Amino acid sequence: MKHADLRVDGARLWRRLEALGEIGAVHGPNGERGNARLALTTEDGLGRDLVVGWMHDLGLAVSIDAIGNVVGVLAGTDPDAAPVMMGSHIDTVRTGGWFDGNLGVLGGLEVVETVVRAGIRTRHPLAVAFFTDEEGARFAPDMLGSLVYVGGLAVEDALDIRAADDGARLGDELARIGYAGSTPCPAAAAPHCYFELHIEQGPVLEDEGITIGAVTGVQGISWTEYTFTGQSAHAGTTPMRLRRDPGLVAAQVIAGVRALAGEFGGAQVATVGRCEFTPNLVNVVPSQVTLTVDVRNTDEAVLQVVEQRVTELVDAAATAEGVTVERRTLARFEPVEFDPASIDLVEATAQQLGLSTRRMPSGAGHDAQMLARICPTAMVFVPSVNGLSHNIAEYTHPADLTAGANVLLHAVLARAGVA
Ligand code: HGY
Ligand code: MN
Ligand code: MN
Fold it and tell me: How far is the CA of 147 from the centre of ligand 3 (A)?
């Protein structure tokens, strides 16, 4: 068979997605099948074990680095050639789905298995990677493992990061699940190039009836954690004029952040996703409230203006209520543009496969935005049903999963050189 006629086995890809989806499975009331595998939890460890087992089954040389990134490599004919890498993440948010991240890793394994079964050898090695803690939901920032991989964060600093949920130290959790690897960070050498297959996680492709997104880049991301401290007091006996209520400040910030997104419009998004009251009791004016603000925009200059406006909003609300403010940056990444030639290749490959395609930026962060710092990088998007993600109802039709994996297959073969 000419390699141009090669196609992935969509049923095999679905079986792997289903098997991984059973680890940390979350079942919804309407038959939703989601995933909860927060980074470095026991479930994440079990998911890692399953994928590493598949890598070994395919004869890949598997390495684990000091931050727990895992890379499986299928040798090429040229031992000096850098690998063409595919990958993503297999950690999920607490209300995650089967496809966010998992598709990029298992799609990469499917590409490798398709190539191996066809008896094809490539000049460049083929690599499949999953990076630690892409979500950043437990250990911030997001894309943490790939950021360390490319040298954007010292591994020693990353290992000391504390979890938002239980305060566990990242390095201790990594050792506990058996993924404190021996391969040094950052990566000794850059991949030849990197392709990431991912669900869109938004409504654009579905709304326009398009199958493949040729992703042009990733928007800027800014995460800040605020801690408001007032005075706890009796809910019944304390006159309103005597209160210093951090809960009021939190409410004004939540509403104010939403209003800012409306005011700026366009690509501006703003989210308060985490908000914790202390002591969180019905009859106690809270002493402290901690919340997170996530603001993003494709335009860095506008994002900086929005960040300044959030700071002013927070300070005004806190001052008026006599509440103190502590702030901590959890993540800050500028917008990233992917490699034009790699975007062209994704687009042309989709068209050669007879698939509808459009160019688009990514609203979500991805490991690809970190790999773009060290090698030519692009992403392949497939549609999300109802534009839903970070929701256990996340779904992508099997035909679209297969289409995306075929684009990944042929973009990778074009770069890896068929021997
Ligand atoms: O937050 C993000 O965009 C990604 O899901 N980590
Ligand atoms: Mn993802
Ligand atoms: Mn995600």
Answer: 16
